[in-house]
Amino acid sequence: MKFGKIIGRVVSTQKVESFEGLKLALIQPLDEKLNLAGDAIVAVDTLQSDIGQIIYYETSKEASRIIEKEMNPCDAAIMGIVDNINITESK
Amino acid sequence: MRLGKVIGTVVSSTKAKGYESRKILVVQPIDPDGKFVSTSFLAIDAVQAGVGDIVLTIEEGNSARQVINDADALTVKTVVAAIVDEVSK
Prior knowledge:
The complex is a heterodimer. Chain A is mainly beta. Chain A contains one helix and six strands, in the order E-E-E-E-H-E-E.
């Protein structure tokens, strides 16, 4: 999993069937100090996050399992909304 | 599997299915000499690791589910699977 910040939404009318009713969030990956870490990605959001919130997301097959159907075209999903990060040591 | 150092913890009350009541650690990948490399990531703790520990992490779903002993945690991919005592070269 990686930290990320919700920086926007992606709206799509014409989409594959299994995306129906799902929210898509635009996420800026971050490191533990909330510095930018790579390019923005799009992830499925089932946790009703808000723009500006810090979240963590997971990628690959496990992300698609957030949709409780078989065979989902999805490779990133938000797994939790961060309340607090406690870092004791960093680069 | 990757070597890392636990550098922090994350508190989160809104979580996806499979993550409820699991401790989440912030892991900084390290090289064999202990030097920090690459970007930190988050992993579910399966071995009661704490901040400062050198750990072994797995980033593969089937293995992760075996490690946390929960075949139904289908969304779990990244876990801390061991606390490292020593790395010798």
